[in-house]
Design brief:
- The complex is a heterotrimer.
- Chain A is built from twelve helices and 14 strands.
- The radius of gyration of chain A is 19 Å and the shape is globular.
- Chain A folds into two domains: 2-183, Rossmann fold (3-Layer(aba) Sandwich); 196-322, Rossmann fold (3-Layer(aba) Sandwich), CATH 3.40.50.920.
- The model of chain A has no long low-confidence stretch (mean pLDDT 97).
- By secondary structure, chain A is α/β, with parallel strands linked by helices.
- Helices cover 36% and strands 20% of the residues of chain A.
- The N and C termini of chain A lie far apart (41 Å).
- By secondary structure, chain B is of the alpha/beta class.
- Chain B contains eleven helices and eight strands.
- Chain B has a six-stranded parallel β-sheet, with helices on both faces. A two-stranded antiparallel sheet of chain B has the order 5-6.
- In chain B, helix 1 packs antiparallel against helix 3 (80-86), helix 1 (14-42) crosses helix 11 (295-318) and helix 2 (57-65) packs parallel to helix 3 (80-86).
- The relative contact order of chain B is 0.17.
- Chain C is α+β, with helices and mostly antiparallel strands.
- Chain C folds into three domains: 3-103, RNA polymerase II/Efflux pump adaptor protein, barrel-sandwich hybrid domain (OB fold (Dihydrolipoamide Acetyltransferase, E2P), Beta Barrel), CATH 2.40.50; 112-167, E3-binding domain (Dihydrolipoamide Transferase), CATH 4.10.320; 202-417, Chloramphenicol Acetyltransferase (2-Layer Sandwich).
- Helices cover 22% and strands 25% of the residues of chain C.
- Chain C is built from seven helices and 20 strands.
- In chain C, helix 5 (249-263) crosses helix 6.
- The radius of gyration of chain C is 27 Å and the shape is elongated.
- The chains are: A alpha/beta, B alpha/beta, C alpha+beta.
- Chains A and C meet through loops of A and helix 1 of C.
């Protein structure tokens, strides 16, 4: 196993899949000569040329639609959003075109495309650049939504997303690009729709994804010093949601906290809580609690920003509350 | 206006007779089909939105005549005529309007979402302008794969004000994509006249902003449309250059079945004025003048088309609804599509 | 599966009910919504209706039996169906026969031990427990009502059951034993007395009045009102509206009372143990004597109603009260009470507060009495009013000021329309 960054893991996935299938191409702002705003596509232009690594004008709606059109006739585009905040300009093509093409054509035209780029907040980027939109896309039938937390997951899941025959919204953690982790040397993929237990525990399940996985692991470590064994369940894929994994874990621990960067209202946690109460009501010893971003546009000020964001301390408080210890 | 050079002293060329008769038949088929669709809508056989193509037939017929079978066509939501001109059977189109399993989109698309893989008919799309980048994307894929297919991308003139139009035209020109942008200017975006919506009413000029060859065409003359499209197709197929064609036409009916033919935004007189330039009559008059169409033959053609439309109606009416099991089919490539 | 017929809480304060009469026999077909039985609650005779369809398989409680709320009284199901948990059916007994009263089956009513943390308000039988705790309790046959909950608001959670299990001797039965016990008093000729079971309403009166005179620190204020002018006013009003029903003094006093309460909101209040609730609206509870007790139908928004409206409503409510046809919402929610014994020639009396209200007005008869008017003794129509006040809410001066306003209204009829 090699220890590499999340960024390089993504780069490897892109490179391997572009080598494997010449129908795969990468399109977006600054993906070529600049090597990507977050350097995920470093070296790809050099290896694959301008035909397959395409710098676009700043026109998210237009190049996303071009990607969808190309996917309709069999190519496998990867559309890079410089950040998912800008994908709002393209959401008509993602939701009205990509997600519905197969269904409204009666199965005649699929849309094998990946929309990828960073989501969530970084540091002091302010209201318009600090948003987690996975619940928006997860709401849409026809889309798949993937949010990897580790370098190994990022690589394996991106490879699966590129090979998938449906549109996949692949949201990378903006603060995760520099994180390091072990990544298998050999070719591997990770199937979409499978959650992963990042830490075993018996007392409380912390359901999380993307950046909150790191925070949940930190929380679990702290809780362990107080003899509380928290299980950290990384959803990895938001849609399709791995309900079996959620139910299995919560049936074991009887208590659950759901953490996510996004806002509370109609968030991912709402769906997780619904599945739990519907399927294993009798296993619950406490109401499921959610830890989410504060219900405000992200403030710029450092202290206010910290107050608005999910962190390990907030997860610990929630975990203790479902254990009736706080 | 460019009409074929025929001389009264000479018998017309047999191929011209055949081609013109085919155009006349296709336009008449669309006209009679749309009239029948209007009737079916008022009987409740067709639901939802239903936008008829009556008056604009020469555009679809003229454009399709210039395409090959392996070219691509993508359109907006007033696309019954395009589908028929492209060769989709009246049965499969009418059945789709009826929402039946035998429809070209298996009853799941409806009037605004006609698709047909065999005819490379890439759909009717319901969000104004949304299909313009898709058309550019299809052309991108052709070029990417080294093919020589052309994509004919239809939209109404109101879509020339939306961002997707400008972004797509810019990139199509920038990257040299084999696409023909077909702006059907019927004078009104719903009820808003062009001059009330666009700072530039000469819409073909919008192509120049992106360094694109653009042309305004008499959309009531199928022959003029055909000729302009021929030029655009050559440019796309051999030079990998996009073209913007503004096709000046008129719709005789309301925006959709839910509004009146002239409504409050235009006068009855204006509609009547354009009736005189009815694309079917324009061609028929030309053929009569060339002495290769008479009233008997025209009536026979019309009767034949009527029978075909009646057959399509009967077929659609007696076809089965989609099986309820199809509700969750085709949301995803695999699996039932239900996620939790 | 057979479904249970339970004694339902048919009034907000009902804790048990007397099954007056079954309206269906065992073996009768039952449709959803059919009346199964009549039950005398603490306030009225109400109906238990079928919540499922089928056949009345068994009457567990006999006519005349008193059954706590939420206890089994019968079964509905399909003919021939086996009944789970079948408690022995009591022998049928009519109301005048031997007393039959059902003690609560063990394990359902709260046992004294259960009081460690009250899981909810005493009026509710709901035990708060997490879904997991409920499942564990069901699996192990534990009675949740006997477990103290350590979660929020006394919620019983898994660790509470773990504690119970840890404390229980290994030999202890997992399910509390002892069957239902039915106490039957001996009865028969020659004993020199007849036991008459307490009616629900009598029990309630006893309980509530005891509660009143005990914990409620009551004091009394009496005043005498000159009713001469009101007498004339009423006579002329009734003469003017001769085709309409007559206005009584009681109606007038209620109207005056309501109007005075608006001016003295301090008296229009409820004692709520940890707070006082002052009401913005005036709802007058009106004591009505009925054959085996009394009940207090409520004239809502009495301050906003005309004399005629009050009169008509009082008459209608009193009529239905005597026929025991009042709905619970019609005899609850009053903010101040009035009791009038004038028709029994009572000069004056003290009435017992109807908690949580803080005051009640006792109205005596209007009698001709000697009174000093303008320095001379005259024979006047006089009325004595006594107000009972809950001192926790109303202080002496507060009550006195209120009575003074009331007296002003009654002595100056026009003041009512100021």
């Amino acid at each position: 196993m090699a220890t590499i960054t999340y960024r390089d893991a993504l780069n490897q996935a892109l490179r391997e899949e572009m080598r494997r299938d010449d129908k795969v191409f990468l399109m977006g702002e600054e993906v070529g000569e600049y090597h990507g705003a977050y350097k995920v596509s470093r070296g790809l232009l050099e290896e694959f040329g301008a035909k397959r690594v395409i710098d676009t004008p700043i026109a998210e709606l237009g190049f996303t639609g071009i990607g969808v059109g190309a996917a309709m006739v069999g190519l496998r585009p990867i559309i890079e959003m410089m950040t998912f905040n800008f994908a709002l300009l393209a959401i008509d093509q993602i939701v009205n075109s990509a997600a519905k093409m197969r269904y409204m054509s009666g199965g005649q035209f699929g849309c094998p495309i990946v929309f990828r780029g960073p989501g969530g907040s970084a540091l002091q980027l302010g209201a318009q650049h600090s948003q987690a939109f996975e619940s928006w896309y997860a709401h849409i039938p026809g889309l798949k939504v993937v949010t990897p937390a580790t370098p190994a997951d990022a690589k394996g899941l991106l490879k699966s997303a590129i090979r998938d025959d449906d549109p996949v919204v692949f949201i990378e953690g903006e603060m995760l690009y520099n994180t390091k982790g072990e990544v298998p040397e050999d070719e591997y993929t990770i199937p979409l729709g499978k959650a992963d237990i990042k830490r075993d525990g018996k007392d409380v399940t912390i359901v999380c994804h993307s950046k909150t996985v790191t925070q949940a692991l930190k929380a679990a470590e702290q809780l362990a010093t107080e003899n509380i064994a928290a299980e950290v369940l990384d959803l990895r894929t938001i849609r399709p949601l791995d309900t079996d994994a959620i139910l299995k874990s919560v049936a074991k621990t009887n208590r659950c906290v759901v953490a996510e960067e996004g806002w509370e209202f109609a968030g991912i946690g709402a769906q997780v809580v619904d599945v739990i109460q519907r399927e294993i009501f009798d296993a619950l010893d406490a109401p499921v609690l959610r830890v989410t971003g504060a219900d405000v546009p992200m403030p710029y000020n450092k202290l206010l920003e910290k107050a608005a964001k999910v962190d390990a301390a907030k997860i610990i408080v929630a975990a203790k509350r479902v254990l009736y210890l706080a | 206006m460019a009409a074929p050079a025929t001389s009264k002293s000479r018998a017309p060329d047999a191929s011209i007779v055949e081609v013109h008769t085919r155009y006349l038949r296709q336009m008449t088929l669309i006209r009679r089909f749309e009239e029948k669709a209007g009737e079916a809508y008022s009987l409740g056989k067709i639901g939802g939105f239903c936008h008829l193509y009556i008056g604009q037939e020469a555009v679809a017929v003229g454009v399709m005549a210039a395409l090959r079978g392996d070219d691509y066509v993508i359109a907006a939501y007033r696309e019954h005529g395009h589908a028929l001109a492209r060769g989709l059977s009246p049965r499969s189109v009418m059945a789709e309007l009826f929402g039946k399993a035998t429809g070209c989109s298996s009853g799941k698309g409806g009037s605004m979402h006609l698709f047909d893989r065999e005819h490379r008919f890439m759909g009717g799309h319901g969000i104004v302008g949304g299909q313009i980048p898709l058309g550019a994307g299809i052309a991108f894929a052709t070029k990417y794969q080294g093919g020589d297919q052309v994509c004919a991308c239809f939209f109404g003139e109101a879509a020339a004000n939306i961002g997707a139009f400008h972004e797509a035209l810019n990139m199509a020109s920038l990257w040299g994509l084999p696409v023909v942008f077909l702006c059907e200017n019927n004078g009104y975006g719903m009820g808003t006249a062009v001059a009330r919506a666009s700072a530039v009413v000469d819409l073909s000029r919008k192509g120049t902003a992106y360094g694109m060859v653009a042309e305004a065409v008499d959309g009531q003359s199928v022959l003029a449309v055909r000729q302009a499209m021929d030029r655009a197709v050559v440019r796309a197929r051999t030079e990998m250059q996009p073209t913007l064609l503004e096709l000046r036409t008129y719709r005789y009916v309301g925006h959709s079945m839910s509004d009146a033919a002239h409504g409050t935004y235009r006068t009855k007189e204006e509609v009547e004025e354009y009736r005189r330039r009815d694309p079917i009559n324009v061609l028929a008059d030309q053929m009569r003048a060339g002495r290769y169409l008479d009233d008997v033959a025209f009536k026979a053609l019309n009767d034949e088309v009527l029978a075909e439309v009646e057959d399509a109606y009967e077929f659609a009416d007696r076809s089965a609804d989609p099986d309820p099991s199809q509700l969750f089919a085709d949301v995803y490539a695999r699996g039932p599509g239900k996620v939790s | 599966m057979a479904t249970k017929i339970l004694m339902e809480a048919l009034s907000p304060t009902m804790e048990e009910g007397r099954l007056v009469e079954w309206k269906k026999k065992e073996g009768d077909a039952v449709a959803l919504g059919d009346v199964l039985a009549e039950v005398e609650t603490d306030k009225a005779v109400m109906e238990i209706v079928a919540r499922s369809a089928g056949t009345l398989l068994k009457q567990i409680a006999a006519a005349g039996a008193t059954v706590p709320v939420s206890q089994l009284v019968g079964w509905i199901g399909q003919p021939g169906e086996a009944l789970a948990d079948g408690a022995p059916a009591p022998t049928a007994a009519d109301a005048s026969g031997p007393v039959v009263s059902a003690a609560p089956p063990p394990g359902t009513a709260a046992s004294p031990k259960a009081a460690a943390t009250p899981a909810s308000d005493p009026g509710s039988s709901r035990v708060k427990a997490s879904p997991l705790a409920r499942k564990i309790a069901a699996d192990q046959g534990l009675n949740l009502a006997s477990v103290a909950g350590s979660g929020p608001e006394g919620r019983i959670i898994k660790r509470d059951l773990d504690a119970v299990n840890a404390a229980r001797p290994a030999s202890a039965p997992s399910r509390p034993s002892a069957g239902p016990s039915w106490s039957v008093s001996p009865a028969g000729p020659g004993l020199g007395y007849t036991d008459v079971p307490l009616t629900q309403i009598r029990k309630t009166i006893a309980k509530r009045l005891a509660q009143s005179i005990g914990p409620i620190p009551t004091f009394y204020l009496t005043t005498e009102v000159d009713m001469e002018r009101m007498w004339e006013a009423r006579a002329s009003l009734n003469a003017a509206g001769e085709d309409q029903s007559k206005i009584s003094f009681n109606d007038i006093i209620m109207k005056a009372l309501a109007t005075a309460l608006i001016e003295h909101p301090a008296c229009n209040a409820w004692w709520q143990d940890d707070h006082i609730r002052y009401w913005n609206d005036v709802h007058i509870s009106m004591a009505v004597a009925i054959p085996d007790g009394l009940i207090t139908p409520v004239i809502r928004h009495a301050d906003r109603k005309s004399l005629r409206q009050i009169g008509a409503e009082a008459k209608e409510l009193a009529g239905r009260a005597r026929n025991r046809k009042l709905m619970p919402e019609e005899y609850t929610g009053g903010t101040f009470s009035i009791s009038n014994l004038g028709m029994f020639d009572i000069d004056e009396f003290t009435a017992v507060i109807n908690p949580p209200e803080a005051g009640i007005l006792a109205v005596g008869r209007i009698a001709e009495r000697p009174a000093v008017v303008d320095g001379a003794i005259a024979i006047r129509r006089r009325l004595r009013l006594t107000m009972s006040c809950d001192h926790r809410v109303i202080d002496g001066a507060t009550g006195a000021a209120f009575l003074k306003t009331l007296k002003l209204f009654l002595e100056n009829p026009l003041a009512l329309v100021w």
